[in-house]
């Protein structure tokens, strides 16, 4: 850990200062997390009077449950699509905005505000846009392309709707980071390449994009975390996991099985799986970013 | 970054930027127009893209139907509480970690940092139980030790101790569990580490106490960082979904973002999308305004948090 050379020597003050942080962290983070892990190794009778330690039975049951496996597949499809759409658009718009030096701030203002909108509200806006009877997009699809669009009844349509709602909200976040990353790249590098006769596209792929790779990695990780966890609001407000479980992503399933269905053992096991997942993502992120940190502006 | 003349690419750049802005803005624009229409106009297929004159009626209808006054107030208390709480807790925490030398400092910092890996989504039920009874852990220690029996023996008759303190349906419950922040603590720590050693040495030489140094030197220097975090954490607090959903059952205590889905027309109801959109606009307005008006701080805060 990096250290300061000069310190204050007061004895009890530092403990007092850190105390609120410690109390909240222990009470609302570590104690519940430990409880969750313990519960995941137990089964309890329906009234919660008696609990029995069952080793990995909950996990074995979980991974042999076709509904859970389907939920994993749904989550991967959902997160992958959200990542592709929001990172693709974010990067494209940022590289465009970075070319227009004069209007960068104005462009940023006009693109930034979906960030401030709650995922649930983003879901409601898109539900209206894509509504089978009243939504302009649904009507357009029906009239121009003859597609029978109905996200309330059709699985694929519902998935597309929550992907749009989540990706749309995330484009601005990614845009801000890509733009900051692009602006941190030294102009002299680009100019040197231009003098050597490299076309703008070539410059982008051989200079800009490699230099942007730490940002790209960071944005990808953040988008995946967002789509795994924070998209809960979109699902809860719009599809409630339906139709037919087609949008029942992992985080919504934990909530539904545990908080609504009161299936404690299974829900705890699902929480532990998610916990393992986010630990993996975070560790990977820090390992990778640590190594690539020299590119950071 | 224009280093040579590329008219075709420039046109492409402008066209795609304008298209991008239109596509990104369209859902909002569509909602704004819908919120100005009457029910006949909003359910006409396709809906007219010319704004109507019903905005005021729809807004007041959404306000009354969704009890938005109460819920917006709750959202405001929650968002401000989280913002202030997070910033105070992490400022003091970072100050303690950086400017004092004590034994468990490294452990404490690691423990705070690791909360990054424990979002509420991975500990839904146990955190809810914790909030339902803050003394739960004490109670379980009490029960495990069999203290009931000992106390009964001591007092001479049967006695059962039950400790109960619930945060459900309260502002404290909405705010407290969200006030620990690994990212804010980390950001302040990073920032404090860049502050020259001389400042602290000079303060010590002048006989300033640690808290004087904090209020007179560190706090003023941190103002830019604080401003950035205010924007981010206010938006974060306002847009919270899962936690308020778990711990509020009383509609008078719920937040606006959660209450909003009561305005969504179900298939049996008349298609009151104009009311739903008016409600959505009201609820999204405060964080949008904060982000737009404090954009400079906001962008700085976002990008700083990455490092």
Give a description of the structure.
The complex is a heterodimer of chains A (297) and B (307). By secondary structure, chain A is an all-alpha fold. Chain A has two domains: 15-55, no CATH class; 66-295, MetI-like (MetI-like fold), CATH 1.10.3720. Chain A contains 13 helices and two strands. Chain A has helices at residues 13-39, 57-63, 66-99, 104-112, 119-129, 136-145, 155-183, 187-195, 200-211, 213-230, 232-239, 250-260, 264-292, and strands at residues 42-44, 51-53. Chain A has a two-stranded antiparallel sheet. Chain A is globular, with a radius of gyration of 24 Å. In chain A, 42% of the residues are buried. The model of chain A is unreliable at 292-297 (pLDDT under 50). Chain B is built from 17 helices and no strands. Chain B has a single domain (46-306), classed as Orthogonal Bundle (MetI-like fold), CATH 1.10.3720. Chain B is mainly α. Classes of the chains: A mainly alpha (297), B mainly alpha (307). Chains A and B meet through helix 1, helix 3, helix 4, helix 5 and helix 6 of A and helix 1, helix 4, helix 5, helix 6 and helix 11 of B.
What key phrases describe this protein's structure?
heterodimer, A: 297 residues, mainly alpha, MetI-like fold, 2 domains, two-stranded antiparallel sheet, 72% helix, 2% strand, globular, disordered C terminus, B: 307 residues
In short:
The complex is a heterodimer of chains A (about 300) and B (about 300). Chain A is an all-alpha fold and about 300 residues long. Helix content of chain A is about 70%, strand content about 0%.
Mean pLDDT of chain B: 86
CATH class of chain B: Mainly Alpha
CATH topology of the largest domain in chain A: MetI-like fold
| Largest sheet composition of chain A | 2 strands, antiparallel
Helix-and-strand structural type of chain B = mainly alpha
Per DSSP E runs of 2 or more residues, the count of β-strands of chain B stands at: 0
- Provide the CATH superfamily of the largest domain in chain A: MetI-like
Instruction: Please tell me what the overall shape of chain B is.
Output: flat
Overall number of domains of chain A: 2
What series of H and E elements makes up the topology of chain A?
Answer: HEEHHHHHHHHHHHH
Number of domains of chain B: 1
CATH superfamily of chain B: MetI-like
């Amino acid at each position: 850990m990096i250290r300061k050379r000069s310190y204050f020597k007061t004895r009890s003050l530092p403990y007092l200062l850190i105390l609120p942080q410690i109390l909240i962290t222990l009470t609302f983070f570590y104690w519940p997390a430990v409880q969750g892990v313990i519960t995941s190794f137990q089964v309890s009778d329906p009234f919660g009077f008696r609990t029995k330690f069952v080793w990995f039975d909950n996990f074995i049951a979980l991974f042999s449950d076709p509904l859970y496996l389907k939920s994993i597949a749904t989550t991967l499809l959902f997160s992958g699509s959200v990542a592709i759409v929001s990172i693709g658009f974010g990067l494209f718009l940022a590289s465009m905005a970075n070319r227009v030096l004069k209007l960068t701030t104005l462009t940023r203002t006009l693109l930034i505000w979906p960030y401030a909108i709650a995922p649930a509200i983003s879901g409601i806006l898109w539900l209206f846009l894509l509504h089978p009877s009243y939504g302009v997009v649904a009507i357009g699809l029906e009239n121009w392309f003859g597609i029978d669009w109905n996200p309330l009844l059709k699985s694929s349509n519902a998935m597309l709707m929550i992907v749009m709602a989540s990706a749309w909200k995330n484009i601005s976040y990614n845009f801000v980071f890509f733009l900051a990353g692009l602006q941190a790249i030294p102009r002299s590098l680009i100019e040197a390449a231009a003098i050597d006769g490299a076309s703008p596209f070539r410059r982008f792929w051989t200079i800009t994009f490699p230099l942007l790779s730490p940002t790209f990695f960071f944005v990808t990780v953040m988008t995946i975390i967002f789509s795994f966890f924070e998209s809960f609001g979109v699902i809860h407000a719009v599809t409630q996991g339906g139709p037919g479980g087609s949008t029942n992503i992992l985080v919504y399933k934990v909530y539904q099985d545990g908080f609504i269905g009161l299936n404690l053992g299974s829900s705890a096991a699902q929480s532990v799986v998610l916990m393992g997942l986010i630990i993996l993502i975070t560790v990977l992120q820090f390992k990778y970013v640590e190594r690539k940190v020299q590119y950071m502006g | 970054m224009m280093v040579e003349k590329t008219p075709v690419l420039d046109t492409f750049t402008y066209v795609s930027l304008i298209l991008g802005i239109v596509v990104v803005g369209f859902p909002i624009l569509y909602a704004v127009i819908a919120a100005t229409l009457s029910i006949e106009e909003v359910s006409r297929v396709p809906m007219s893209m010319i704004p109507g004159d019903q905005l005021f009626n729809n807004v007041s209808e959404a306000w009354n139907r969704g009890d938005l006054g109460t819920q917006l107030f709750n959202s405001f208390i929650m968002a401000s509480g989280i913002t202030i709480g997070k910033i105070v807790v992490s400022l003091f925490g970072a100050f303690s970690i950086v400017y004092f030398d004590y034994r468990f400092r490294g452990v404490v910092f690691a423990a705070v940092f690791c909360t990054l890996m424990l979002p509420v989504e991975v500990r839904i039920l146990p955190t809810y139980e914790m909030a339902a009874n803050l003394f739960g852990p004490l109670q379980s220690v009490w029960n495990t030790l069999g203290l009931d029996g000992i106390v009964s023996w001591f007092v001479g008759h049967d006695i059962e101790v039950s400790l109960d303190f619930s945060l459900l349906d309260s502002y404290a419950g909405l705010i407290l569990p969200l006030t620990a922040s690994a990212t804010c603590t980390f950001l302040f720590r990073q920032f404090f580490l860049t502050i020259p050693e001389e400042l602290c040495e000079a303060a010590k030489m002048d006989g300033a106490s640690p808290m004087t140094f904090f209020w007179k030197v560190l706090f003023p220097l941190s103002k830019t960082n604080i401003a950035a975090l205010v924007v981010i954490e206010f938006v974060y607090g306002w847009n919270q979904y899962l936690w308020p959903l778990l711990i509020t059952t009383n509609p008078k205590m719920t937040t606006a973002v959660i209450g909003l889905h009561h305005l969504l027309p179900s298939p049996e109801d008349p298609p009151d999308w104009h009311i739903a959109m008016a409600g959505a606009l009201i609820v999204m307005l405060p964080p949008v305004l904060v982000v737009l008006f404090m954009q400079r701080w906001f962008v700085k805060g976002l990008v700083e948090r990455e490092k």
